Structure formats: C-alpha cells, structure tokens
Amino acid sequence: MAGMRTAVALAVLACTLAIGVAAQDTVNQERTYLTRVRRLTVDGRRAGEGYWSPDGKRLVFQSEREQGNPFYQMYVMDLATGDTTRISPGMGKTTCGFFRPGTDEIEFASTHHDPKSKQYQDEELAFRASGKERRYAWDYDPEMDIYAYKEGTKALTRLTTARGYDAEAGYSPDGRLIAFSSTRLAYDHTLSAAEEKQLATDPSWFAEIYVMNADGSGQRRLTETAGYDGGPFFTPDGKKILWRRFDEQGLIADVWMMNPDGTGKTQITDFKAMSWAPYMHASGEYILFASNKLGFENFEVFMVDAAGTKEPVRVTFSDGFDGLPVPSPDGKQIAFTSSRSGGGAGQIFLAQWNHEAALAAIKAAPLRKK
Amino acid sequence: MTRLVRSTALAAATLALASPAVVAAQGAATASKTRADVTTLASDRLGGRQAGSDGAKLAADYLAAELKKMGAQPLPGQKDYRLPFSFTAGVKDGGTRLTVGTTSFARTTEVQSLSFADNAEVSGAVVFAGYGLVVPESQNFGYDSYATLDVKDKVVVVFRYFPEDADQKTRQILSRYADLRYKAMQARQRGAKALLVVTGPRSPNAGETIPMSFDTALAGSGIVAASVSGDVAKTLFAGVKDKSLEDIQKSFDSGNPHAAGFALPDVTVTVKTAVVREKQEGFNVVGYLPATARIALPKPWVALGAHYDHLGRGSHGNSLATKDDAGKIHYGADDNASGTAAVLAAGREFAAKAMRARHVLLGFWSAEEIGLIGSNAFVTTPPVPADQFAAYFNFDMVGRMQDNKLTVQAVGSSPGWRPLIERANVAAGFELVLQDDPYQPTDVASFNSASIPSLAFFTGTHVDYHKPSDTADKINYEDLDRVVSFAVALASRVGEQPDTLAFAKVDQTQQSGGGRAGVRLFTGTNPDSATDVKGLLLGGVIGGGPAEQAGLQKGDVIVQIGEQTIANIYDYTYALEVLKVGQPVKLVYMRGAERRETTMTPSARK
C-alpha cells in the first residue's frame, strides 16, 4: 500500500495543473484501454488509493471528507448502493486500506493511538485557516501502525507496535500474510550523525519491505538495500510480491518483484523515472504502475509485461495526475486516483478496462533496452 | 399535440415490427424515455418555440397534456397548468426627435432612443462630459468624467465606449463602466435631464446611431436617453470653433483622468424619446405530483424544471446561425427540448412511484432565452412559497453527452450536495465535472436567487448551439436517459430524507459596473463554458470570423491574448475588452500538446 504514493502525487498536483493545458485529442487515446471513465468520489477535499474487495463489489479508500480532521480517514464504499461507511476511528492520520480475503477484516495504518493526534489536527486546520499554503508532503509519521478492523464487531486490533512508520500493507490472496513497508530501522538503535541527517531530510530512506502473519506475528524483513522500498502487493496467484524500489537519492524508482520469502529479487522496469504503485492485473500477464517518465510533475499510468522484458506502454493521457492503478479482481475494471476533474486534489475514478487491447499493446511493445 | 406524439411512436413501432434487424439495431433507441418528446418539441410544427409565438403555445399545450396524462395536477390554487406572465418581446423606436436650435432630426440614422430610455420630451443647455465614465471610488483608480462639471437640469452628451488609446490597464478598468445603462445612471444621478451618446469619429461604428438592442427589462432607466449621429454631433459642437470633434475625442483618448468636458456654447436642444416596448404574454407550464405520505416533511416540495422556449427563427439577435441559415427554424433539440423531455421522463418515473414523501413539482419555463424571464416570474411571485422547496433541479442542454462527461452546476448552493452526488453517481457512473457557481445563464440562477438549494445538469455546448442545426437526430438519447435516472435518484433521495439541505450563498464572481456591454469586439469564438480546462477551450469557431481566419478551430485552447494570459472565461472577457477593432493581436493557443501562436484581427461587434 502506498501512503507515499499519494504523497508524491499530491505534492506535485498544484504544479501539474498550473502547467497543464487540455489536450482534447489525447483523451481519445485513452479510450483504447479505458472506457466509461467515471468519477467515483465527489465528497470532500481529496480521496485516493481505492482497493477492491475480493468479490469486486466494494472499494476501501482514504479520503479527507469530515469536518475537524484535515487528514485521511478510511472508508468503504458499496459499489451497488453507493453507501459509504467510515471504518477508521476518525482521529489522527490513516492510510492504505486493504480487504483480507476470506474474512470480514480490513487492514489500514493509523496514528489514532498517538495522544497528540488531536493537537496535530488542530494545528493543521489552524495553518490552513491562516491562508498559507504548503506543498503537501507525506510525513512518515513514526506513530503510524497497522491495524485490522473487523466489520462484524467493529473491533480494531493493532498488528504492529514498533516505533517507525508501518503502512502500505497488502494481504496475500489466501489472507494469511501481510506485506508492508516500515521505517523501523531508523528507530531501533542509536543513529550515527549521518543517519540522523538522513532521517531529518528524508525518513523514507529507511523504509524496507516486511511480511508478517495476518495476526501480526512473525514479522520479518525482506529487503536490505539503502533507499525507500515500499508499496508491496502480492500478485493474484500469491507467488510473488511486487514493490517499488527508490534509489538512494529518492528520485528514481523502479518496479521490482520477489518471492514472499525475499528470495529471487528481479527488477521489472528500468524506466529511468519515478515508477511506482505497481499492481498485477488479474490475468497475471502484466503490471500496471504510475510513472513520471513524461515529465517530473506529470504522472501517467503505464503497463509492462509481467516478466519486464518489454518497454512499458502508456495507458492514460489526461492532464494532471493519474496514478495508483488497481485492476478489479475480475480484471474488467480499474480504479485509479486522478486530478483530472480539476480542483488540484486527487479523487478516485473507475473505468472499464480493455484487457484484449492491453495484451495486444504489450505484445507489440519493443523489447526493453538493455 | 398528443396525436403527434402518438403517431411518432406508432411509426417507430411499425418500423420495428417490419424488421427484426432494425429492432436489434435500434433496441436502445426505441426504448428511450425521451426520444418521442424531443422529436415532438423540436419539430417543424413548433417552429423553434420562441416565447410568445404560436409554436411556444403549441409546446405549452403539449406539456400540459403530458402533465395531465401522467397524473400531475395544476399547482394548489391554480386551475390550469399554464401560468401566464408578461414580458417585453422587443423594442423599437416610435419616432424619436431632436431639435438643435431650429434644426430638427427625426430619422433613426440621425437620432434614436436607447432601448432603456424613459419616454419624455425635455429641453436644456448642453454639457459635454467626455466619455461619461465614472469609476467608483472603491476601485482606487480616480476617473470621473463629471468631476468638474455641473450637469443639473442639463442635457449631457458623451462619447460611446471608453478612451481609445489608453494603456491596457486603464482600458481594463474603464471598460467595466462603459455600459450605456451605467453611463445613463451616472448622468441621472447628477440631475441631468437627458443623455445623448455619440459614437466618436475615432471609434468603431464611428458616427452611427446605436441599434436598439433588445432589452428585456420592463423598467426604463429613469432618464431620457438617445444616440445621435456624427452629423448631429457636429451641429451640437458647432459653437466649439477651434477644434474638430475628432480633436476633442483625441484629447480624451489617452485615458488622462484630467481631460475635462465643458458646456457647449450657444446651444439648447429639445429631445423627445419614443421607445415602443412590445409586451407579450408567455406561459410557464407547471404541474405537481402530490406527496402520498400523510405526515408532511419540512419544506414539502421538490422541484424539477427546464425551459422549453428557444429562438424561433433567430430574429432576436442571440442566434449564431451562419448567413446561409439565417431565418430558418432553430429547432433547439438540445436547447432545450432535451431538458424538457428529461423533466417529463423524470415526472413519469415519480408518478409511477407508490410512495412520495414530498410533492414533486414539474416546471417548464418560457422566455429563458431572452433572460430567464419565465423562471424569474415564477420565483418572484411563486404559487408555492419559495421557502417550501427542499431543492430544485434544472435541466438545460442535456442531450449531447460526449465521453460520459456530465457537468453539474450550482453545487455550491448547498454543502449537502457532494455526498448526495457521490452516492447517486456510484450507480450512474458519469465522469462528473462539478461547478460550484450557481450564477449560470440558465434558470437555476432564478432558483438560487430565491435561496433554494439547486443543481443544474448540462452536457456541454457544441457547434450547433443556437443554430438551426440543433436538431433531434443529433441527440444522444441513451445518455440523456441516464441523466434522467441520475436526477431521479438524486431528487428521490432529497425528496425522501426528513432532513432538508442547507442553502449556501456562493459569492458572485466580481463583474460589476458595465458588465458585458463593454464588449464591442467580434472574434467569432464559441467558448466551451463547461470545462475546467486552464485557458479557454473553444467549443467551435464561427465561420468566416476573425478566429477562424486566424486558423483556430474547435478544441483549441486559448492561453494568451496579447500579453494577457488566459486562465478562464472571465480572463478572456476582460482580455477582449482591451483589444482594438482592426488591430492584430498575438494569440497563443494549445492544439493538443502543441503550443502555437497566431495573429487575430478582431472586427467590430454591431
């Protein structure tokens, strides 16, 4: 899951829009893969990171839409009735929801246990009321921990307790494992001067991929490389974990894949841009992801074959930010986050997905340059 | 009218029976909830449904019959669905006369009343007041044509427009206060008996009297006001020996705020204005489906409405027909047979419901095209008090959906709209464009002004807008029906929930003073208002107009005119105000991702 994904995204939104000019014809290019594009979220200032329930009938997402809290809370929308329910406590910051297959549990990351939550909310609201603006930045709050929410009992169980940002989680298809990202390395020992400086300038540098059992037990680290590793998702067959790996400077990111035990790490893209938010299509044939290949502040959705042998193919052609693509369990729709409706903040969109056209385009794509 | 519809439906059915293949191909079409109504309303027989015309009366008959058929009743206290109102359908000069000394002028090419003038005969000495411009003190600009003049009981003569050679910033400010109504108001407030306007020799349309623009306001401006020709002006200024009228105009044209007017020596004039306002009767057609619940909810009414009038044969000046098409029937299938059909279809769905917690009002407004007159008449003296309405839903041009895009306007009229829209759109699945602004050029503005939470649905403008080519065959019926379902879902939700929506007043975009009348240029562009594109997206360009000649086409986005960057339609309007007729201007636009530059030469708007 990807708190950070949204962070990158929204930080650049204002600029993207300022330079953006509609290119009407390009919208039609999008129709190759996306039809019946529709805006799903309307209420509130911003929304993003919509992930499907295993039956494809609901979506869990984060949105800022309630008075008094300027941070994301988690909501579940019923795609038949349009009913939306908040599942997070309402206090503090939350991010990155995911349905646990075969259960009524939904995980998300939250800071609501932090006694300072209310204070942070009030400070942020006061800052906004002052009329000042800041570039949105994901703060990698070390209080962020992963919780599991049971819809039946509404009980919330804390799964991680280590100091550090624990978030960006996704379940394995059998519901037994959770892959997530954590910056706990920055808090488990006395930092050197260089590490202190690193933490002050870019805490995400410490983030690595972990897995744990669905009850929070057996937490173990899978990645060992300097630079931000985040946004892990299991593939639909459960045999691999997809994630994105940043370089040490935090500017270039690529899509990687590994076995759930951390072996067999393979780089899928070498796109020389910030490529992130990878998610495997239900067919297992290709991976959707977002990249700013076309300009630092212009994120678009791309796709690449599952083995990463080809050059990525561009999917979206709309102005502003398009990212966080998540195909539905049946592979016939995608949810994505976009600023295409204007207003500067992201909202969730749905579209019908043309799988045949996607396969054909990937087949026709040139081999990746070595 | 009922027969007409039935025969259309029969024709379709016969066709379908004749060929199973056609049934398959037209499955969606024959099942449309709206096609028959649009086809009837946009037919030759209704002649473009201009307010006050026989065609509009036929349309009203049709709507009344359809209301009756679905079981709607006339509003409480009303015997008929038709609610008459009176409006000014046009103005003409009924013999304006001006006498300077012993010379009289009476031809309309010499002197003509301004359309908003009071009818009276007055005499007096003449004071020349430059451009007759007064910038309010709040603007911190300092321009007052009357600063050094006493015009009480005098006849004031001023130039039309605003200083021709002023720098861009000055023009931008002055242009907003150059509307003739505004100039007349300033003269009246200073006690002047009359205002005479001359189009200066250095201005576009030099020396011509001003055509009597159609002005629907029933009230005059409280002052005698007329335009005079260049020749008449020469007679008035005959006593000014050392300077020509052109020299005089030039002394004002830099925009220098210290250029002062003066009393014209040795001249008294008598002016008699004669504005003939043609009053006509129009009809709103309104019915309602009573609530079935026994317990009345607060604000027990929900209203859906659309204007059913259009432009007739386009004689009122708001037609965009090309020369070849001028005078033909403007069918108005999208504008607004589509919205009218949508309200009928929604009404039939509400009529079929077993339960209605609130009354559902179905309103069909007339004289929208000439200034929202019907809907204004309705909310001004509403048969049902305005505070009894939980919400109003407006449909205007909803039949040309492209790419699944639905614009919903006036969302700012209640904080409760967004959650409701989100929920309803989960099933409807539109790519929504939401606009908070309720001050739209459609009837939603009337209901917003009555503090009723409102929404307006709109599927965007197109090249056939206000042209005879806006015909029924071009309507996207499948998506029009989806708009109906979406609106019914929203209206049902508002109608059934015990709580009422709070009304929120949206700040009106600053556009005071002269307003649009300052625009005197013709660029031949057709801006697409239903867009949140940065820049001005062109929904089309008018054939042979300056924009087309400059190479612009539909879909281009204007991002800069001269040195002014364009972010929205207001920037564009202001940029136009400071351009000069006949003077080429640099224009930057985006075609797709490509940034292009061209030169456009605006022509004069008559």
Task: Write up what this structure looks like.
- The complex is a heterodimer of chains A (370) and B (606).
- Chain A is an alpha+beta fold and 370 residues long.
- Chain A has a single domain, classed as Neuraminidase, CATH 2.120.10.
- In chain A, strands 1-24-23-22 form a four-stranded antiparallel beta sheet.
- Chain B folds into three domains: 276 residues, Aminopeptidase (3-Layer(aba) Sandwich), CATH 3.40.630.10; 179 residues, 3-Layer(bba) Sandwich (Glucose Oxidase, domain 1), CATH 3.50.30; 86 residues, Pdz3 Domain (Roll).
- Chain B is of the alpha/beta class and 606 residues long.
- Chain B starts with a helix and ends with a strand.
- Classes of the chains: A alpha+beta (370), B alpha/beta (606).
- At the A-B interface, helix 3 and strand 1 of A face helix 12 and strand 16 of B.
Task: Provide key terms for this protein.
heterodimer; A: 370 residues; alpha+beta; Neuraminidase; four-stranded antiparallel β-sheet; 6 helices; 15% helix; B: 606 residues; Aminopeptidase; Glucose Oxidase, domain 1; Pdz3 Domain; 3 domains; nine-stranded mixed β-sheet; eight-stranded mixed β-sheet; 16 helices
